[in-house]
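B., you asked whether I could sanity-check this one before it goes into the benchmark set. Here's the sequence:
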Amino acid sequence: MLNTIDMRAGLLGERLGHSFSPQIHATLAGDRYTYELYERAPDQVGAFLKGNEWDALNVTIPYKKTVMPYLDEISDEARRIGAVNTITRTADGRLRGDNTDYFGFALTVRSMGVNLAGKKALVLGEGGASATAAAVLTDMGADVVVLSRHGNETHSYRHAARYHADAALIANCTPVGMYPHRNGQRLLDLARFPALECVLDMVYNPARTAMIQQAERLGIPAQNGLLMLVAQAKRACELFLGEPMSDSVITPIGDSIARQTENIILVGMPGCGKSTVATRLAEALGRPTVDTDRLIVDAAGTDIPTIFAAEGEDGFRLREIRAMREAGKMSSAVIATGGGAVTRDVNYPALHQNGRIVFLRRDLDKLPTDGRPISQVVAREELYAKRLPLYCRFADVEIDNNGDVDDTVSAILTALGYRDETAKG
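And here's what the prediction gave me:
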């Protein structure tokens, strides 16, 4: 085996964009190998595999099947699934293919604590991820049914609830729900599956897809694909280095990535200090600040009082909904919302999909009204009485903002588990 300090590992795919894989492998392996992203067109894959740019690889869509004819050896597991996502060189230079997604998906299912023996599991999609999920669930004793858009009546999304209302698990192995184009979409109405014990969605951006958010509303345990991503990387790292690694490293890495990528959203009464706190909080974390009122003003080309005068509150709220959808798709941002954002239920899933929501409380006598159309028409006491239940319903945490802004920022960081975060340059 190569001296691992000289090992060149990486991820092979067609369009990789932003990937967490280099960060995950750097945490797992330190400097024991480098990890690069290798974007290659389909007609370049063969030459790349035969070349000497790399020593160990992960493989992602659409090449998990493409690489198989170029390999000298394929594990039984990978051959059974029909997909390879990890390639290593043997001591004599031969190329070996493995499927570490199997390990990652199996660990994710086990983390849910469900016993699937003899129970029905629905797998959504027909690609390589679906084949992996089906193999794992079958090995766990589940009765697996694979659904698709093109399946016959008993294997289609459209008729799934009619034939499979007894499903104990549903696993989404499609891109439906994924950032940036499919946010807010889901293939099935989970309410039509009364026997569901858990839901798995292999999408991890956004952190809470429409399917996961519906599962939350129904009280069904749900998990996104981040745990699987880290777990399969851990198994790949073991294959790269030729030595075992404790599973205990997986959850902390996933938690760290989740914190780094989540939005922090501030809600509260007009004038409660959301913009000021957002700016200081963003400085503390080295993140960008997004003000949804500013998004509205920039899109309209005029100020908010003018929008209210011309379009009324309903017109303004429609613009606000669009701003919430735009802001909610972001990641790693601190978002300050308008005081009335909570008055439209549709804004909650948009904000919740990728972040945690903080309700900033401030005493009524400290709330200004100048330049705020609603506050000038409705008494603060009346407005607060109407909105308080809505702020509480949206919020993950509540923070007092009657004192020093630095104390407020410190309280938010503590409440959200960011005590050890340091400013990033």
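One thing to flag: The mean pLDDT is 92. Otherwise nothing jumped out at me.
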